[in-house]
Amino acid sequence: MSSGDIGVSPGDSSFAEAGPELIQLLTPEGERVEHPDYAIDLSPEQLRAIYRDLALVRRVDVEATALQRQGELGIWASLLGQEGAQIGAGWALEANDMAFPTYREHGVAWCRNVDPLDIISLFRGCDNGSWDPIATMFNLYTVVIGAQCLHAVGYAMGMQRDGGNGATLAFFGDGATSQGDVNESFIWASVFAAPVVFFCQNNQYAISEPIEKQSRIPLFQRARGFGFPGVRVDGNDVLAVLAVTRKALEAARTGQGPTFIEAYTYRMGAHTTSDDPSRYRLASEMEAWKLKDPIERVRAYLIRSEQADAEFFAAVDAEGDQLAVRIRKGTVEMPDPDATSMFANVYAEQTPYLTDQAAEFAEYHASFASAGQEA
Amino acid sequence: MAAVTQRSAPVTLGKAINMGLRKAMEDDPKVLLMGEDIGKLGGVFRVTDGLQKDFGEDRVIDTPLAESGILGTAVGLAMRGFRPVCEIQFDGFIFPAYNQIVTQVAKIHSRSRGKLPMRIVIRVPFGGGIGAVEHHSESPEAYFSHTAGLKVVACSNPVDAYWMIQQAIRADDPVLFFEPKRRYWEKADLDTSLEPGPLFETRVVRAGEDCTVLAYGPMVKTALQAASAVEAEGRSLEVIDLRTLSPLDLAPVFDSVRRTGRCVVVHEAPTNLGMGSELAARITEQCFYSLEAPVLRVGGYDTPYPPSKIEEDYLPDLDRVLDAVDRTFAF
Lengths: 375, 331
Prior knowledge:
The structure holds two protein chains of two kinds. Chain A is α/β, with parallel strands linked by helices. Helix content of chain A is 46%, strand content 8%. Chain A has two domains: 19-332, Thiamin diphosphate (ThDP)-binding fold, Pyr/PP domains (Rossmann fold, 3-Layer(aba) Sandwich), CATH 3.40.50; 341-374. Chain B folds into two domains: 9-191, Thiamin diphosphate (ThDP)-binding fold, Pyr/PP domains (Rossmann fold, 3-Layer(aba) Sandwich); 203-328, Rossmann fold (3-Layer(aba) Sandwich), CATH 3.40.50.920. Chain B contains twelve helices and 14 strands. Chain B has a seven-stranded mixed sheet with strand order 3-2-4-5-7-6-12, sandwiched between helices. At the A-B interface, helix 6, helix 7 and helix 13 of A face helix 3, helix 4 and helix 5 of B.
């Protein structure tokens, strides 16, 4: 089979452009457009709440990036540019749905009422995730690329078996689609018709590798080969993401099996604060994507349709300032964890050997304290 | 075949696990079995024979051929409150799942500060001696014993197999359950009414005075044979079935070695950084003044598992165990 059969040829990256399949309800200019398959009807209050979430999550992200630059965090994975995809997906979740994030889903976490400081404590190195994954229905961050997709399928299979009346939403990136675990999760979800929605944020880069290094066809088209529908949505269009994800989750909950959503977006920041994107991408590319900013278009739409006034935007800005202060204060005052906590929760039922080791550890450290007193 | 309901009857080790799985599924509706070919086929060793027929396809799940998928989805099911029992068809096929086991299964309880217990059992037929091709005869237990957050046990006989699988399923931590595949067809009388001891308990299975022989899984039988063989020569070996590899339960081992002054550890896995290394270190730390000789290890060589034509040269046998015992008397 020649590569022409699948519509691409070596070196042809046209498939990676958004293309006509892109589902959009709000243009980059802030104009509402209709789509034959996806409708959305939101009240002015809901639209303003969405804007508030977008703006506050960006504020959290900017603050965390600054805190990392000042040495308060070990590392930070910025969501800059992906707010629309994440808030749209977060808004689509219902109470019984379970989200399985990567390590960048700060926007979805926000929608699940996870305190941003609980996320920051992870990046500060205080813990590996301190929120309650069951109470929030937002799993702890999974750092191993793609591993959580299988967890989401398994959890969904559990819902099938205990009448959970919900679905799972599995988050992952474009790079993760090359992982065995992610492909296996597609197979499992398909074969068991598991109530799971695969939400891929194609932000165009896996650290430095562009999407062309992961796929020779548009990602959403892969779903068909696994036996379920795939759609490509404008990931910077929060309304379209919400409509598409809501529909997919509803299909999953009603026994129609999985959907693959490719949220077509762009990572405006570095992969993490340890990364330097200037080494592998052009500034002009980012400038082009700036024009498609997910927050600006909502703001433009709210103003154009007279659903929000200057007072509203000023209030959101003020709330953002307060939030930033709380995050800064909460971060710098965050206590270091007690070193003995490393022995806690290794097992549900701790082994005698580990108990002894913990005691030896405590004794060893106590010996320094007493040595200090003697000196 | 003996009726399951009979109070005491001779059963094979494989059948005993089958009965234990059945009992666990009857006792707890949250118990699920997952694995390749475990449904209609009943598993390649027939350990799950008849269970899908009786418990349905939702509880005895024939999975895609994807070990990482088995463990990864088991994580999600465990998060949802189920107790998945995963079958890895052969020891050498566990490695696609290694990532999920080590980076996820082992750590999620800790990562979630105890909010997400990983009540997962991973059944692994292990060890050689059945004339199989590559990847079907391995002993990967040390990889998992080395990993915090996992518990690792190995059964050696039908009675233990019946009880230990049920106890592993009831445990609130993830348990690697190693089954000695070449002993699947060994028989013993099983009394299903007899209350068992704890899962993570090491047991003296033959009392002796001159040298302690430590073994687990398939090598327990070999150690017992060695003990019988030297009895006529007037040498008395104490044989200990470790049963639990992580956590280790070493009090009975230390008691024994302090009495005998000599110790030989036997396993099929290569000796380099195998279970014997840790056992020798711990025994040396705790029993130094009682030892008449260094703790010696008998195991597989540090080579890939060889083709089956020469596997008997690789695997520890009665002679190699007795040779090591002799050497402990030469110091």
